[in-house]
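Example record for the data management plan.
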Amino acid sequence: MEHRTAQLHLETSKLMGVDFIPIGVTHSNQDKQTLLEELYVDHDASCPHCTNATGHTNTVFGTGNPDSSLMFIGEAPGMEEDQQGIPFVGAAGKKLDQIIEAMGLCRADVYIANTLKSRPADNRTPTPDEVAACGPFLKSQIEIIAPSVIVTLGSPASKYILETTTGITKLRGTWGTYNGIPVMPTYHPAYLLRNYTTETRSQVWSDMKQVIEKLSV
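Corresponding structural encoding:
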């Protein structure tokens, strides 16, 4: 569904008193895509953070297979993501693609989103208040997609989804849960590129092997 069509559909639904995300209902792939499009429109119209943020060109909502069993969650768009409106398309995105391919999958097999939908100034780390304001839309994305496993990339995403203040160095490699969904926290691909050592690469791969095992159960 195109963004404009989704906007019209959402406005009509609200006029009729219909919530845009039916709770506790199993959706087909097509239904999920429609719901995500409507959520995208609702986000751009009402997000407490993104509607007041400045300095970004596009909001970056999410991309991939809405019926995927695996969802990756990063922290926020960078410059290239902001320009294209697609998450993880810069250098960190290429590294994430390599990680996904090493798992025997491709980008089109998974769903990728961020905790924050608009680029922070100078690519700084999102603040907890920004994540708290925009984050409920991510939670709605998760509810629609209903993945079997979530991988959180980096500290902001991991802290938000797991509701913790513990840093990623201690969190990574250990399973957590979000609404009954197994969550594997690991390093953000940008961190991996900045610290491209044998140790960090083996840690991330160890985390992904656990994800592969979980998905195969």
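Summary line stored alongside the record: The CA atoms of residues 66 and 145 lie 5 Å apart.
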